[in-house]
Each structure stands twice: as C-alpha cells, then as structure tokens.
Design a protein that fits this description.
Layout lengths: L3 H4 L4 E5 L3 H13 L5 E5 L2 H8 L8 E4 L8 H9 L9 E5 L4 H10 L3 E4 L4 H17 L6
Parallel strand pairs: 1-2, 1-3, 3-4, 4-5
Helix pairs in contact: 2-6, 4-5
Length: 143
C-alpha cells in the first residue's frame, strides 16, 4: 500500500503574494506537510503576468492574494480570465479578506476557490493541506 505522499502528484504552483512572511509561511507549510509541489513566487500581479507569458512553463494552479500593490488580485483575475490560454488555470484566492463583495466578485470572474487565511498557524496548515489534497486528485489540463 502506498502512503499518501507516494501517491501525491507534484504540482507546479504559482503563489502571488506580496507579504514575505506569508510566502515563508506557505513554503514552511508545504515542507512541513512533506508535499512535493514546486512553488514559484510572484510578489505582485504584474510580476505574475510576466511569468505567465512563458506559455511553456505554466503552473497547474495559482494561489492568489487579493490585497497587493500595483494591480489588485481582482484586477489580476480579470486579466487572467480574459486570456484564451491562462483562463483555464485554476485560481484559488488565499486571503485574509472575508469581505462578501470581494468573494462575490471573485466567483463571478471565475475562481476555483476562496480560502480565508486563519490566524492560528495550525489552522492554516490544516486548510492548506485540504487545498493541496483536493488539487492533487483533480485532473488538471494543460491549456
């Protein structure tokens, strides 16, 4: 019988987050859970769009913070979902904002999920573990 780690699919994940502490927290959680995923970081939406121009190295999923400098998470989503190739990348909002208006707008644009970052690290680990387990069992397409 294989352990869950042996069965785990390795995902390429684009993390769009401007807060270095949040980036470190996510990377720490991925390694604590012993997940094989490759995390690529972008510190704002513009940097992410620049990385996404390399169509031969697209991520399987995107984790997106909403509150960012330059272009907001919502503006980034609108650009992403208007692109004929990038629109198919499942994008999960990972944010501290429980704002109903933001949530509604994100789902209207076409996100794959909206996860509110809990304050307690243990709760954060559990939520992230659930998100990662869900996306590793999904059939993901390369557009």
């Amino acid at each position: 019988m294989k352990t869950s780690n042996e069965m785990a699919k390795k995902l390429s994940i684009l993390l769009i987050e401007d807060d270095m502490i949040e980036i470190m927290k996510l990377n720490r959680t991925i390694s604590k859970l012993e997940l094989p995923h490759q995390i690529v970081e972008a510190h704002n939406g513009e940097e992410a769009l620049e990385q996404l121009k390399q169509k031969d190295r697209l991520p399987e999923i995107i984790l997106l913070d909403l509150n960012m400098p330059k272009i907001s998470g919502i503006e980034f989503l609108k650009i992403l979902k208007n692109d004929p190739i990038l629109r198919y990348i499942p994008t999960i909002v990972l944010t501290t904002s429980a704002n109903h208006k933001d949530m509604l707008e994100c789902y209207k644009i076409g996100i794959a999920g909206y996860v509110i970052k809990p304050l307690k690290y243990e709760d954060y680990v559990q939520k992230l573990k659930a998100v990662m387990e869900y996306w590793t069992v999904n059939e993901l397409i390369k557009a």
